Each structure stands twice: as C-alpha cells, then as structure tokens.
Amino acid sequence: MIQMDVLIVGSLAYDSLATPAGSVENELGGSASYGGFSAAFHNNKDFGSGVGIVGVVGQDFNNEHLEWYKSAGLDITGIEVNQGETFRWKGSYHGSMAEAVTHETHLNVFEKFQPKVPQPLKNPEVLMCANLHPSLQSSVISQTNVGRVTMLDSMNLWIEIANEELKGVMKKVDILILNDGEVRMLAKKENLIDAAKDVLEMKNGGILVIKKGENGVIAFHPDGIISIPSFPTSNLVDPTGCGDSFAGSMAHYLSRNSGRVSREELAESLVHATVTASFTIENFGTERIRKLSVQEYESRLLEYRSITKTA
Ligand code: AMP
After folding, report:
1. What region does 283 belong to: left with phi over 0, alpha with psi -120 to 50, or beta?
2. Ligand 1 pocket residue status of 31, Cβ below 6 Å
3. pLDDT digit string, tens, across residues 111-132
4. If we measure between CA atoms, which residue out of 199, 197, 232, 221 comes closest to residue 270?
5. Is 131 a pocket residue for ligand 1 (Cβ < 6 Å)?
6. Nearest Cα residue to atom 15 of ligand 1
7. Ligand 1 centre from 223 Cα, in Å?
8. Is 78's pLDDT higher than 70?
C-alpha cells in the first residue's frame, strides 16, 4: 500500500479575474491547483511522501500547465482529460478585496465528472476536499481510506444550490473550513460566534476553521477557540486561491503527525496556513505560490512569529 501525505480533490480551472490591481484572462486556477501547489511546496520543503490531485480538465487544457503540476512534484494520475472544455470561473474583487464577486461559472467538464481515485492514491494521511460540488467531494470521501484527517472547503454557490448535499458531506469530515460570510449564510445568523456554534452542530462537532480575510482566522476546536491575525501587508494584488493555499498548507502540516489533532497542533497549522496564503495574494494566479522559495517562506514565518508574540 502506497501512503501519500495528502490527496486533494477540487477544481482545475481557467480563471478570468479583475482586481483593483489589474486583470487577467484564462489564468490557471481552481481550488485543487492552488491547494496542490501549496501542499506540494510544503511537502518538498519537509521531504514528505507526496501530494496527489483528483480532478478533471477538458481537451483545451494546456499541456504546459500539466507540466507545472508535475514539476511541482504533484502526482497527477488522478487528473482526467475529458471531452469538452475546462471549468471556467470569472470573478472580480473591489475595495478591500474581502470577497469575490462571481460573474460567470462554467462547470463544463465538471458537469458530467465522476471522480475515480486511482488505487495508489486511495490511502492518504489527509484528504482535502477543496471547493467543488459537495456530491463530488462525497464521492471521493467514499473511495478513500484516510489515515488521519479529512478536510472540507466550500463556497456560497453550494450553500445556495446544493444545501442538503453540503450539510450531508459536512458530517463526514473532521475539519470544515469556511469564510465568515459562508458561516453566517449557512447558519442564517449575523453573530459569527452564534453562527459558528450552529454550523458545528450541523456537522456533529469536530473542528471549524473560519477565515476572515485581512482579519485573520478563528478556529473552534473541542478544547477551545484559537484566534490569530493575518500577516500584515499592503502588497495585495489578487486574493484568488488564498483560501485554497491556506487549506493546502494545513493539509500538509496535519499529515506529519498521527492520532487526534490537538488544539496546539491545529494552532500551529493555522500559522503556516496564514503565512502561506500571504504569498498567494501578491500576484495574479498561481505564480507566487508555484515559485515560492523555502528561504522566503522561512523568513516571513519568523517575521510573523515576531509580530504575533505578545508575551
Ligand atoms: P478561493 O479564492 O481560495 O476561494 O478559490 C478561488 C478558486 O476557486 C478559483 O481559482 C476558481 O477557479 C475556483 N472556483 C470558483 N468557483 C468555483 C466553483 N463553483 N467550484 C469549484 N471551484 C470554484
């Protein structure tokens, strides 16, 4: 049995994006791309045993982009190339760029996608279900035998159009990661703490991580709440994929241990996730996270630790 550190299922996309810093068309994106590059960066840095992706692209997918995944060290045997066009998403950000406005979502090859997890990828330590239709996330959960932790991300679209499926798959995972707007929307409550309690009840307990953009992250662990700030920066270009690279980093961190995830371990995974996501925002698309050096990362991690040290 081959044991992978992390398996990620999610979207592989061509994004068209506009932010106050500029715009790009058909940029490689998707939740599994950002999550994958992030987890692979950490996996390479820590000499881990590998990160795999499960997803689908169309025949229009650029071979060079498959090479990008491979040269990052990602196992892409779980990526299918199907007839039709690659998933496309068009979004924009305004003001403080706290939230994406979706203009167009073309599921294309995702509409008929039936994920098939290749045998060698079926036993990951951590399974990260990145943003995707909840029924596809559920299908991958049922095909895998996860060693330690299953994580789930989602978005407002699925809360609106696949609410029951989302509530079903939430119950099957150890860690649910959402942003503050999604938690309020799911619970139909304005107060974030009340809303978080309701969401935790919906998922039968476990861990809930709430991303608050520039306001950092608050996490609910059975042993207590964790609250940490974001990395302070004015270099904001494109927030697309921040959430996914955050989750990819957490997934890798949690694959390094065994047993129950303690509150302390969760807090440390959130530090790495926060620092990793702070790079993604500095450029359009996946370039910043793909080309991140270990030295740059370690130096920002030290800076973050010094900024947040209050005692
Ligand atoms: P994030 O900014 O981390 O929430 O993720 C942005 C990525 O999510 C983009 O690269 C999009 O391609 C992808 N995305 C947007 N809408 C969807 C959707 N409905 N399903 C799956 N992925 C999506």
Report:
1. beta
2. yes
3. 999 999 999 999 999 999 999 9
4. 221
5. yes
6. 89
7. 31
8. yes
